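With this grant's support, we have settled on a layout for protein records. An illustrative entry appears below exactly as we store it:
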Amino acid sequence: MAASRAEEIVLEAVRSDLTPEPCATQSLRRPLVRLLPRAAASQANWRALPRPAVSALFLHLPVLDLFRLGHLFTPRWLEVWRGDPFEVHDAQFARLPIPRSRVADAIGTVLDMYLAAAEEDEDVEGGTYGAVGHGRVKSFRVESTEWRAEHAARWCAALQRGGAFEVVLFNRGFSGDPPVLAPVPRGLRECVSLRVLHLGFFTVEAGELDALARAIQLGLHGCACRPGVVEGVVAGCRQLEKLWVHDGSLEHVAVRSSPQLWRLSMLRTASRSLTVDDAPLLQVIFPGSAATLRISRLPMLRRLLCLDLANTSLEIKGDQVDSRPPPRIGCWQVPDYRQQDVRPKMRSVVMLRLIVDYAELGAMTPLAVEETLRRFPRVSSLFIQRKKDVTEAEGLASITDPHYLDLFRGVECVGRTLQCITLLNFQGGKIEMALAKAILATAKALGTIVLTHDDDRPGIADALLEADQALDQSPRNCNNPLLPLRIVHQTMSGFEYNARLG
């Protein structure tokens, strides 16, 4: 794996998957503010602050500032510091005047100092070590620091003693070299107090993470997962709520009987098959590049995102959805499914995101989308993402292109619940415009079409203008004739930002 690709994986995980950074790290992101001292200002006034105020202030001080300034607020600043759960983030050590190779040692030193002081208090007070407050490691995040096996052993031993709640550990390699996959540190596998764990660029063997029975979030980013890893985690971690397996490669994956899981994400992960069954609270699935996706007994599923129509075979309750339907007589003739369509459906899904290869599916793309939508009768938000650029065979759309008025007649979600369509990576191709107009002609509740595009693409302004004119002139079958059609232009960067917030 190239170093640049590894950096992208880490940044994507930090932006989208991890919990917010500690307050002290966020302080580093803010611009510096320099205030002129008051004429009568005195450090003695700082000592007058009550202990809760000093404690709250210390939570916002990066490590370097804490050790430089802590004694100015109270001579017992170490006691105040260790009175709160500890959050350590390697980003706070970047400002230390030490070589980059020594940062890992500095992290271990600060961690040991915090825990050693707490252990002294335990000996004196006879408290329960690892309870909330003294000695509790709330968060330990190492995302960009070079470290070796001996560093990991030292950290993990301390994390076990401190009853760590969250650990984020990325194996980044040395001196800009791409990361070399390493085994998961043994001490981390045995840290049974963990509730949140994110690992990057490790080799994960089957059964290694099964002992983390209290985990509620688990993320594997750029890891080599052996067969059985996901199944073992799901079976062993009965409290698991979120599972990420990103930027990897798997064989056959089965997620079954997971009582608490509500988010499953396998973005940029290739697998031969993904089976998701009997997850009563599951609400979100990102299936990744699964050749076959089988879903059943998911009563709370709300969002099925990034489903590749050309490369993923979808099975709902054992019945396969034909994403490549055979051409019909007259090409656009619509069969009457109102009486005979008793095939299994996912009625709980309200948001569906399809990835479409217009070049591969060609003129059959609208039929493939129609066949898929028939299985999701309650969709209100539909995202259709273009996979490849417009080919010469497809060509660009124009207002003179024909309309396929009856293509989606009888599709329940189009006729009743569909309110918004978003065309991702919009380029103005003939087929994607034909698809949008066909849905618009039948959708009775549709009020918004969002064209999400790349501003730097040549000719995109002309394509958007043509699309606006074509959609404005396209016939509609709306329940409320006073409901205007909103056509919104959005950049891809803006869409990605809003998606991360949501």
Q: What stands out?
A: Residues 47 and 73 are 5 Å apart (CA to CA). Residues 103-125 form the longest helix (23 residues). Residues 44-125 form one domain.
